[in-house]
Structure prediction request, 643 residues.
Amino acid sequence: MDEEVGNGVDFLAGAGRDINEAGGFNLEIKSDRSADDIRHNRPGTKLRDKILSLPDSPGVYMYLDNTGTVIYVGKAKRLKRRVSSYFNRQHDIRRTNLLVRSIVDMRFIVVHSEEDALHLESAMIKEYQPRYNVLLKDDKSYPWIAVTKEDFPRVFLTRERGLEAKYYGPYSNVQSAKVVLQLIRDIFPLRSCRHKLDEKGIARGKYSLCLDYHIKKCGGPCRGFINKDQYDEYVKRVRAILRGETVELEKYLLAEMEKLSAEWKFEQAQEVKEKYEAVRRYNVKSIVAKTEMSEIDVFGFVGADDEDEAIVNFMHLHNGAVVQSINLEYRRCSASSKEEILSMAIAEVERRFERKFTEIIVPFLPDVDFENIKFSVPQRGDLKKILDMAVKNAMQYLKDKEKQAEALDPERSVDKLMDTMKRDFRLEVQPRHIECFDNSNIQGTNPVASCVVFKNGKPSKKDYRHFIIKTVVGADDFASMKEVLHRRYTRMMAEGEKLPDMVVVDGGKGQLSAAVEAFDEMGIRGEVALVGIAKRLEEIYFPGDSLPLYINKTSPSLRVIQAMRDEAHRFGITHHRDRRSKGQTVSELDAIKGVGPSTKTALIRHFKSVKRIKEASLEAIVEAVGKAKGRIVYSHFHADENF
Prediction:
C-alpha cells in the first residue's frame, strides 16, 4: 500500500476499503519503539525507515496504533518533511505528544496536488473518524428550496434532494427559508398541490380546485384558469428571487404598477403595489452590503487555538443580499491550526454544495494552495464589513448552541464552564464558589465595600454582603481591602463556614498585594485562590506574577469574571449612594431632641424632603405626626418665632 499512487479524487469513493484490504488495518501491530523512544517522541527502527523513504510529494499519511486502528489522518505538501516533524521534538501541545506516543505504524498515499490531498484527507477522516483528528460535527442535512421540473412547477421547502428539481440554498436557518417562501407566495399565485398536471387531464376537468385558489394564493392551473406561458413567467421571477435578484424584481413591479396606473387600471395597480411593497420590505432586511461585486463568497472563523471547538460560517452574497449561509462546526482532537480548519471548511462546502469558487473573502489565508481561487483578507471597507458579519454569524451560532445545551442539560453546561475556568485560572479545583470584592467612596466620604458571590457561575444574591469601612481614615483602597477581607474570612472561619474556591479583587497589583497580605495574616494563602482584575484592559493578575494574563475575549471564563466585577461595582455603588443620601436627608432631623426614628420616617414620607418640612405650617406638621411631636419639630425650625 505504501507504493500506491493516485490523484486523490480517484480514491474518494473507496479509499477506506482499498486501504483495509491492502494495509490490513485493525490487526495487532507489534511495536519496536523502546520506552526511551516513546518518552522522547522518537520512532522505532521500522517506522524510521519508512519515514526516511517517504517522497517529497503531496499526499495523505495515516498513523496507526498497536491495534491497527487509524488514529490520525493528515495531508502534506511534502510528505517526508511533514511526517518527520512529528518525531524530532517535544511538542508544546499535550494532545500532539499523546498522539506521537501512540503511533506504531503509518501508511501514505501520494497525490498530484495539495488540493487533491485535502479532498482525500476529508474522505478518509469521514471513513475512519480518527480520535486525534479535527472532526466535522455538524453533518446534518440543511433545508433547500426546490423548484420542480414539471409543466406547472411547484416551489417548496425540503431537506431531501432526490426529486427532479432545481435546488436553491442551503439555508442554515429554516426560518430564513420560510421567509423567502412566504415572499414568493405573497407575490406569485403558484400551486402547492401534488397533482401531476398535464394538458389532457386539465382539458377533461380531472382536477378540482382547492382552498388556495379561493383565497387567491393559486392561479388555478389545474382548471386552465392560468395558461402555461403566464405560469412560466411567474416561475422565472421566482428563480430570480431565489438567486438573489430581488432588486430587479422590485424595479419590474414598480414599472408594472406605474404602467397599470397610467392605463387607469387602478384595482390591478393596487394589487401590484402590494406585491411591490412586500418585495421592498424584504430587500430592506436582506440586502446587507452595497458593493460593486455581484457575487461574493466569504468564510468567517471563530475559535481560538486553545479551544476544543471551531465554527466556520460560509455566506454567499448576490447583489448585496445573502442567498446562502451555513455554519460548519469542527471538534479539535489534535493540534490542528485555524488555517487547516479553514481549508477543510472550504473543501467541505465545495464538495457538499457543488460550489466552484473563483474568489473568496477570508479572515486569514488557508494552509492549502487551491487552484484557480483568489483569496482576499480585507482590512477595511465594505468587504471587511461583510467578513465581520460572517464572523458575527459564527459567534451567534456558538452562543445559540451553548444556550440550547444549557437548556437541555444545565449541569453539563456548568461542568464545562467550571472546567474552562479551572484551566484558564490555573486552579487545582473547579471554582464552584467565587467571591468578588469592590471598594466605593467619593473623595473619602462614606467608604463602603461590597462582596458578591457567584455559585456555579451564577449570582447567589442571598449571599451578597455590604461592609462599612470602620478602621481606615480617608480614601485608602488598599487598607480598605485588607480590612474587608479580614472581617469576611475571619468570621467565616470562626463560624465553621467553608471558604470560597476563588476570590477576585477589583483592581490591579495594588489591591491584589493588599489581599495577599490579608491572606498571609489569616493563614489562608494557598488554601483559597486569589486573582485581581484590572479594569482598563481586562488584565488578570496572580500573586507573585508581575506579568498579567490576558484571557481570550470570547472565553466564558472572562465573561463570568467581568459579570462579577460589574455586579460588585453596582452593588457597592448602590449601598454607597443610599448611605450618602440618608446622611444628607435626615441629618438635620437627627439633631431634634425628642424626635425618634418613626417620627423622622413619617415626616420624610409625608413631605418628601427636609426643605419642605422647614417650609410647612404648624398645622401641616401636626397633621403628619401629631400635636406634641409637631410642635417640637416646628419650634426647631422656627425658634425665632413666637407661637
